[in-house]
TrEMBL record:
Name of the featured protein: DUF3667 domain-containing protein
Residue stretches spanning the membrane: 276-298, 310-336, 348-365, 386-406
Pfam family, one: DUF3667
Lineage, highest ranks first: Bacteria, Pseudomonadati, Pseudomonadota, Gammaproteobacteria, Lysobacterales
Assigned keywords, A-Z: Membrane, Transmembrane, Transmembrane helix
Keyword Transmembrane: yes
Keyword Phosphoprotein appears in the UniProt entry: no
Length: 407
């Protein structure tokens, strides 16, 4: 009876020679701290805690080194990181997607704080009144007409719950000064009944705003659709998606109705703004492949892969998010230093303006250095790409607003 030879074992590890080390995972001969075949580290995970802490510190130090090598050229050297990535020099820099992702999260995390600084600090408000040249009036009646016209620019401060106390004081002072000038002009024209007010308490109350009638308040859109009576149904969608869509539409309808209704809308608007800002990061991720596809179309005959355009899009958006993050940090720093060193607000404002000016110049120079075309063609494609991107961005913001209203 013929004996069938045994099949070779899957464990083909070669016995270790004296002085050789083999990978515990695949058996390959080790030539360093990592296996060249499977990538597993030589270090064992079964070791004291201080060894794990050392690995963590090494990882953080390595990551910090990448940040130092990535962020300065990302901000100051257009196209440098992209060309380095194309050339194969990638280890010392953060990956494009990771860079964009972290900067996007950081920027949109701090952006609501910068938008709330107007409520946190009561800054002076300059009130400007136009259309009140009392010196040109020839009669007291004409002075009264000009005064009434100018006072229409004011709203009773008790009906503006979001206005700060200092802003309300500035409005009252401007109204007091305006009324004084009018009364002084009436006295100069010979009106003996005119009295110059001395304080805000001497001013007559502003007329209350006209409340529209019930018929004027009625919006036909409020009765045009109801989620319970007239649910939206898409035949090719499953039932649970139709239900979710109707719930979202109902929340959107309720939020819009609350914004149009009477009362204080500041809390509603703040909540909706936070919801829109929370939806923006996810919306921006859809902009990346769309922008890369746009670059692919614009440079169709350059014979570049779509992935190359995607890397350009990642670095472009990472730069924009970095500018947004720096602008938000400068704004927060300006507000924090306002009570102690108000003179720093001006240079910090200049830095924010420099970022706004530098952003389009940077993107143009990046497009020129990466795609290496002449200036006329580069500028033309830059303008066309920017125009198309603005429309894409507008649709993205509208989508984020719709998602925010539906929450």
């Amino acid at each position: 009876m013929t004996q069938v030879p045994a099949l070779p074992s899957s464990d083909t590890r070669v016995p270790a020679l004296p002085g050789e080390r083999h990978c515990a995972n695949c058996g390959a001969v080790l030539q360093g701290e990592y296996c060249h075949d499977c990538g597993q580290s030589v270090r064992s995970v079964l070791r004291p805690v201080h060894g794990m802490l050392e690995d963590t510190l090494d990882l953080v130090a390595n990551w910090d080194g990448r940040v130092v090598h990535t962020l300065p050229p990302l901000l100051l050297r257009p196209g440098f990181l992209t060309l380095e990535y194309f050339s194969g020099r990638r280890v010392r820099y953060l990956a494009p997607f990771r860079t964009m992702f972290l900067l996007c999260l950081a920027a949109f995390f701090l952006l609501p704080m910068a938008l709330d600084t107007s409520d946190a600090v009561d800054t002076p408000v300059k009130v400007t009144v136009t259309g009140a040249s009392f010196q040109d009036a020839k009669t007291p009646a004409e002075v009264d007409r000009l005064l009434k016209k100018a006072l229409k620019q004011f709203t009773p401060t008790e009906q503006i719950p979001v206005v700060g106390s200092l802003a309300a004081q500035q409005m009252d002072k401007a109204r007091l000064q305006l009324t004084r000038e009018a009364m002084q002009r009436r006295i100069a024209l010979g009106d003996t009944t005119a009295v110059v007010p001395q304080t805000v308490a001497d001013l007559p109350p502003l007329p209350a705003p006209r409340v529209p009638s019930e018929a004027a308040q009625h919006n036909p859109l409020d009765m045009a659709w109801d989620a319970q009576k007239y649910p939206v149904h898409v035949s090719w969608l499953p039932g649970f998606l139709n239900q979710r869509m109707n719930r979202s539409l109902q929340r959107m309808h309720d939020n819009l109705a609350a914004m149009r209704g009477p009362g204080d809308h500041s809390a509603i608007k703040a909540r909706l703004l936070n919801q829109v800002l929370a939806a923006l990061p996810g919306t921006m991720f859809f902009m990346l492949p769309a922008f890369a596809l746009l670059l692919k179309v614009m440079y169709l005959f350059r014979r570049r892969l779509y992935v190359e355009h995607l890397i350009v899009a990642l670095h472009s958006h990472a730069f924009l998010f970095l500018c947004l993050l720096l602008g938000v940090l400068f704004q927060l720093l300006s507000v924090a230093l306002e009570p102690h060193a108000s003179w720093l607000s001006t240079p910090l404002g200049w830095l924010i303006n420099v970022l706004w000016i530098w952003a389009p110049i940077y993107l143009l120079m990046m497009q020129k250095r990466v795609y290496r075309q002449g200036w006329p063609m580069t500028v033309l494609k830059y303008l066309v790409t920017g125009w198309c991107y603005c429309w894409l961005l507008a649709f993205a913001i509208l989508g984020a607003a719709a998602m925010g209203l539906a929450e």
